[in-house]
Design a protein that fits this description.
This protein has 387 residues and is of the alpha+beta class. The chain folds into 2 domains: 3-22 and 209-384, endopeptidase domain like (from Nostoc punctiforme) (endopeptidase fold (from Nostoc punctiforme)); 34-201, Lysozyme (Orthogonal Bundle). Helix content is 27%, strand content 18%. The strands form 6 sheets. The chain has a 6-stranded antiparallel sheet with strand order 1-2-11-10-9-3, with helices on one face. Strands 15-16-17-18 form a 4-stranded antiparallel sheet. A 3-stranded antiparallel sheet has the order 5-4-8. Helix 3 crosses helix 4 (152-160). The longest helix is centred in the N-terminal third of the chain and has 16 residues, at 62-77. Mean pLDDT is 80; it is low at 1-41 and 187-207. Residues 186-207 are annotated as: Disordered.
Length: 387
Amino acid sequence: MNGRKIMGAAVTVLVAFVLGLSVISGTPVATEEQPPAGGCTVTIDATGAGASGTQKSAELNANQMAAARTVVGVGTGMRIAARGIAIALGTAMQESTMNPAAVNGRSIGLFQQQGTLYADVDRTDAAAASRAFYTQLVSRVPTYADPAAGTFAAIAQAVQRSGAGAGKYAVWQRWATALAAQLLGEPQGPSPAAETSPVTCEDGGGSGQLPIRQAGLDVILPKQAGIDGSGSDVIVRFPSEAAAIAAAAALSHLGTPYAWGGGGPTGPTQGIRDGGVADRHGDYKKTGFDCSGLTEYAYAQAGIAIGGDSRTQYASGGTRHPFREALPGDLLFSGNTPATIHHVAIYLGRIYGRDYVVEAPQSGSVVKVSMTPIVGQYRTDVVRPWD
């Protein structure tokens, strides 16, 4: 691997392809928001044969797709057959419209799980809820992969034991089966018996969080970062794996709307009113991040709690260091004094002679990578959460 050290910089930029990179993906879900740039929405044509009765279809926004990918990823990790994964997707769509944060009385999460059976499960965590669903699936219907074991709806009902009955799950059979095939990368045959239907991927939407390639200390910046690597991958090396994980998590949300008061440890959330600029931009109707919501989320993915607002993050989010010692992953703060801090961003280091941050900058904008004039914009010290 060839590398080039930027003289006087806090980061080594490598312009080479790294093998064995993991892909960062996420689980937060919020509905009623258009997907950010960076992928595609999925619309499934649920017409035609292959499932009995009326069938429903749906277009998933970016956050719903993030949850759907988690359902599929957990199922794959547990070696669940494609039919079981499809049943899980259909059940989650019926129960919560693919929203892990959904709460209806005692029913919580993607699958609206309730009761002592799920008492030790974090039901608002999409991965944990999915594991619990699949555990019950293989326990209650061990032969679920065989159509002879029961219909799609009957097996979903066997897991959920819903008082409303199996019928409500039946309407999602074709949609969920097609989506499972799409996300699993399986061919969708023309046979009605295959319970499949066309999946259309339309440009301009988002298919959930951007896939960010990370291996150990190295993170490849996606093209959405807007940093020209002259045709080669731009790789930032971080001083710790926690910093790399945090930066990759933040980068995975490039294009997600700014929402004042939005975001937290589990991902983007609906913004709140501020009585001013944010209200004029309709932030209270958007699902996204403000500056500190993004940084809190990013470091939570590395298992580090830094607090939920920029002043708290400055005061107790990690150790403080002079800016001349700044490293990629450090938190940078705007404000002349600790009492006037009003913005926070994650430093990506000096790349090709210029300083960059990933940030949620302001109402009307989106999560982005910004080239920043460090002198005069940020305080003269930085916070290092992983110390």
